[in-house]
Design brief:
By secondary structure, the protein is α/β, with parallel strands linked by helices. The protein has helices at about 5-15, 45-60, 70-80, 140-145, 160-170, 180-190, 195, 220-235, 240-250; strands spanning about 25-30, 40, 45, 65, 85-90, 100-115, 130-135, 155-160, 175-180, 200-215. The chain has two domains: about 5-105 and about 210-260, 3-Layer(aba) Sandwich (D-Maltodextrin-Binding Protein, domain 2); about 105-210, Periplasmic binding protein-like II (D-Maltodextrin-Binding Protein, domain 2). It has nine helices and ten strands. Strands 4-1-5-10-6-9-7-8 form an eight-stranded mixed β-sheet, sandwiched between helices.
Length: about 260
């Protein structure tokens, strides 16, 4: 049973009340990317958020999670020290820009189209003739840019995937690139049937993504190692698997009853 709005608000206050982490100021930043990380009734939630909160609790750190547009969170974490960012895809392009704490979850990506259009692509280059909705500076947009797509020409870059879904529904774009689990979650959240509304115009096996917690390269190794130990403790205790199963069931596919 889902908690009431008031219960969620009280839970958030209880979890994050108290002083901030001692020592160098620690910040934790994320974005609205359900079901991995998002806010509900003003309270951070989601699969990866619960994992990060478990690590913070393990380390006895009380730090509020800041939900920001992805491009801002990404820039802040990359160019500042003591800024933890999640859920960030670990890619070759980003490998030396961050210090990687540990794996949170994985996701497969696709190009989605409206089912009513019956649009199917044979290869990625076919999408160069169409307009695709992306999130600014996220891994999917960077993937398309590496394959010759250009913002403002082939890509309509925005701040949130909820807005990209709406662009697709209003036929302002032809395609939407996102994680499969996110497409399912957001269509249900919008009160729509996933299979009636959307179709995979092109699965993207080359964009199977591992999502991590990470710090910028300027963060001292001691801080990074502190969080690595915290994440390992959460995994050893069984909390990691318990949270993963809550959101994803027995496989990487999310259980219908576990997400809104």
């Amino acid at each position: 049973m889902r908690a009431s709005r008031r219960q969620l608000m009280l839970a958030g206050v209880a979890c994050w009340a108290g002083p901030l982490a001692a020592g160098s100021a620690l910040r934790v930043v994320s974005e609205e990317a359900p079901p991995f990380n998002y806010t509900e009734a003003g309270v951070p939630t989601g699969l990866c958020t619960e994992l990060v909160q478990a690590v913070l609790n393990e380390l006895r750190l009380r730090v509020p999670i800041e939900t920001l547009p992805w491009a801002r969170a990404y820039d802040m974490a990359q160019h500042s020290d003591h800024v933890l960012i999640y859920s960030i895809a670990r890619t070759e392009q980003r490998e030396h820009l961050f210090k990687w704490v540990g794996l949170l979850t994985q996701a497969d990506y696709s190009l989605f189209a409206l089912a009513s259009r019956g649009l199917k692509l044979k290869q990625l280059s076919d999408a160069l003739q169409l307009q695709t909705a992306t999130v600014n500076a996220d891994v999917a947009e960077q993937f398309l840019e590496e394959h010759g797509f250009v913002k403002g020409r082939h890509l309509q870059s925005g701040s949130r995937n909820e807005l990209n879904l709406e662009k697709l529904r209003q036929r302002r774009v032809d395609l939407w690139i996102t994680a499969d689990v996110m497409a399912r979650h957001l269509t249900r959240q919008a009160g729509q049937d996933f299979h009636r509304l959307l179709t995979r115009a092109l699965p993207l096996p080359d964009l199977s993504v591992s999502f991590y917690m990470a710090f910028g390269a300027a963060t001292p190794d001691e801080r990074v190692e502190q969080f690595r130990r915290g994440l390992e403790a959460v995994k050893r205790s069984g909390q990691y698997e318990q949270i993963r199963r809550k959101w994803q069931g027995s496989s990487r596919e999310p259980a219908d009853a576990a997400v809104s």
